[in-house]
């Protein structure tokens, strides 16, 4: 197995963290086995209970999960049904089954991660965000204890779905900001799969030297790129002087494994093979809190970042912007330019449904579009003290924040108080998934 595909596991000792950091710095990413199968199963069931089965489509379009043995409808809430329910919703599927799933699947099916309000604040999602071990890895990689966690979406990518997105950077590669700029925020991107997932990237493409080569060798081929562009994507039809396509690698990330990558790493996306199971999981990222709310957030949407994070959590809705400052769209933005696609989704709803709203296009022509339903009886997820600090409800202790090294006497963990409040257990030698005793039961 190539060095860059190594999966680390076990107790987060100083030595293990150092090895992970070496790989993270050298290749631009590292992987860690952080969830056991039982935790992944519980997270998949929660996605079905709170998101997929709660779609507002007409009754004949709503997904019904049938027993593979007697064809009865399985109840996601009945413990005796859950094992068979999980087998039925993982796949792979027959062509007929897949078509039924596609019809009843949430919005953003093509990308494989819905923007329904409920996905941003599921309890299992927050349990993962505030897990002391995941925080420890992030703080060690970022060399800072005071972090915020990204309020991002969950993943539910059907076989055959996922945009064939060519290699890109989540920043302006042709007009890069200075790494040592005063306003530069150190951040770590990531995701974890509740089933096996994929990740396309160019190993070692995150370094300043590599980025400078991109500027020097690609700028002439992209004359329309502007300094104001927030992202940059490579065009397959244009010259590829550095051979990025040839250097790219598709990583297969096993179930329960966290993939953390540097925000400057060149990466992409591939469709899930039609004969493979559904890719379930969540995106997970951290960044150094620094002074708190980032100026660019408010400059982009007119709202203070912290105020929006707290509103999102308290009301159970999506934030206004992604951590990258792109606007979060309840439905794919391209629907506005393809009325027939929008119409097909509207026709899945009953006539007069409150999700359907009348409005106007930029040219003044009337249009219909979709809005999310209000969250009824929403209860915010339970947060530990660590989780409250990662969200921004609670301030971090007044320390210098810099993480120079891991305490040899307390390897790879947040403070004992944070562990107690978070009700999280350290990764046990006999249980590399790191489930707590309560979760194991």
Task: Give a brief rundown of this model.
It is globular, with a radius of gyration of 22 Å. It is built from 14 helices and 15 strands. By secondary structure, the protein is α+β, with helices and mostly antiparallel strands.
* Largest beta-sheet characterization: 8 strands, mixed
Count of DSSP H/I helices: 14
Distance between the termini: 34 Å
Strand content: 5-15%
The CATH superfamily label of the largest domain reads: q2cbj1_9rhob like domain
CATH fold annotation of the largest domain: Jelly Rolls
Per DSSP E runs of 2 or more residues, the count of β-strands stands at 15
- What gross morphology would you assign? globular
CATH architecture level-2 label of the largest domain: Sandwich
Mean pLDDT: 88
Radius of gyration: 22 Å
CATH class value of the largest domain: Mainly Beta
Structure characterization notes:
It is a single chain. It contains 14 helices and 15 strands. The chain is α+β, with helices and mostly antiparallel strands. It folds into two domains: 3-330 and 375-418, Jelly Rolls, CATH 2.60.120; 338-370, no CATH class. The strands form four sheets. Strands 1, 2, 3, 4, 6, 10, 12 and 13 form an eight-stranded mixed sheet that branches. The longest helix has 14 residues, at 14-27. It is globular, with a radius of gyration of 22 Å. The two termini are 34 Å apart. Mean pLDDT is 88; it is low at 404-441.
């Amino acid at each position: 197995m190539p060095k860059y595909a190594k999966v680390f596991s076990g107790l987060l000792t100083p030595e293990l963290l150092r090895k992970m950091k070496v790989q993270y710095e050298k290749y631009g990413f590292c992987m860690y086995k952080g969830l056991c199968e039982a935790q992944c199963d519980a997270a998949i069931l929660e996605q079905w209970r709170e998101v997929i089965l709660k779609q507002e489509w007409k009754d004949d379009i709503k997904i019904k999960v049938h027993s593979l043995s007697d064809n009865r409808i399985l109840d996601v809430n009945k413990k005796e049904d859950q094992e068979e329910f999980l087998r039925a919703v993982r796949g792979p599927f027959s062509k007929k089954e897949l078509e039924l799933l596609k019809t009843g699947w949430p919005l953003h099916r093509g990308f494989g991660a819905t923007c329904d309000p409920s996905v941003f604040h599921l309890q299992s999602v927050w349990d993962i965000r505030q897990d002391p071990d995941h925080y420890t890895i992030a703080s060690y990689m970022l060399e800072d204890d005071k972090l915020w966690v990204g309020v991002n979406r969950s993943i539910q990518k059907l076989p055959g779905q996922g945009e064939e997105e060519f290699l890109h950077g989540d920043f302006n590669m042709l007009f890069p900001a200075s790494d040592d700029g005063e306003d530069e925020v150190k951040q770590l991107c990531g995701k974890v799969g509740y089933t096996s997932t994929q990740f396309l990237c160019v190993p070692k493409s995150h370094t300043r030297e590599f980025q400078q080569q991109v500027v020097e060798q690609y700028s002439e081929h992209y004359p329309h790129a502007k300094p104001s562009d927030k992202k940059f994507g490579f065009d397959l039809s244009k010259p590829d002087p550095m051979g990025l396509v040839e250097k790219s690698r598709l990583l297969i990330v096993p179930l329960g494994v966290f993939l953390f990558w540097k925000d400057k790493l060149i990466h992409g996306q591939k469709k899930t093979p039609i004969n493979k199971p559904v890719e379930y999981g969540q995106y997970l990222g951290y960044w150094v809190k620094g002074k708190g709310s980032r100026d660019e957030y408010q400059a982009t949407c007119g709202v203070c970042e912290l105020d929006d994070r707290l509103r999102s959590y308290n009301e159970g809705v999506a934030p206004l912007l992604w951590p990258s400052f792109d606007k979060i769209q309840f439905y794919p933005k391209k629907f506005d330019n393809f009325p027939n696609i929008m119409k097909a989704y509207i026709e899945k709803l009953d006539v007069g449904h409150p999700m359907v709203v009348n409005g106007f296009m930029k040219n003044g022509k009337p249009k219909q579009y979709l809005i999310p339903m209000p969250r009824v009886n929403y209860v915010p997820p339970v947060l530990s003290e660590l989780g409250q600090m990662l969200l921004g409800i609670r301030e971090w202790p007044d320390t210098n924040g810099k993480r120079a090294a891991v305490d040899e006497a307390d390897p790879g963990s947040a403070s004992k108080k944070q562990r107690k409040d978070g009700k999280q257990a350290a990764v046990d030698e006999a249980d590399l998934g790191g489930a707590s005793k309560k979760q194991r039961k």
